[in-house]
Design a protein that fits this description.
This protein is mainly α. 56% of the residues lie in helices and 0% in strands.
């Protein structure tokens, strides 16, 4: 994405499988890195003690952790989507909606290369 320098040779929306595969891998790595950071932070905050073992002083940590868990859950969901997009690419069904089977518009894939559903079916 960083090196999209407006070449006239390649019209927007023309994305090769290799490019798509590369952006999916890059996204998966990004997500896994963020998840690892959150997991590491959670372990540090808990001081090695498991979830929900401390009352009182642990309250702030618990509240903070709700936000972290929500982010973590979103990351997991996103990773599932990216993996699904990778599977679709491998199976040759990339760019088609998982729900209704319509072709996902290139503009959408441009923004969300790992989109596995069309705008109508996306939640
Ligand atoms: Zn659809």
């Amino acid at each position: 994405m960083a090196f999209r320098v407006g070449t006239t040779m390649e019209p927007a929306g023309e994305r090769s499988d290799e490019e798509l595969a590369a952006s999916l891998v890059a996204r998966a790595v990004e997500i896994e890195t963020k998840m690892a950071e959150i997991e590491a932070a959670a372990v540090t905050a808990a001081g090695g003690i498991g979830f929900g073992k401390r009352v009182g002083e642990g309250t702030n940590i618990a509240v903070e952790r709700i936000g972290e868990v929500a982010v973590h859950d979103r990351l997991i969901a996103e990773l599932v989507t990216v993996r699904r997009a990778q599977a679709k690419l491998a199976g040759g069904s990339e760019g088609r909606c998982d729900e209704c089977g319509v072709e996902i518009p290139p503009e959408r894939l441009e923004v969300l290369p790992w989109a596995v559903r069309c705008v109508n079916c996306a939640d």
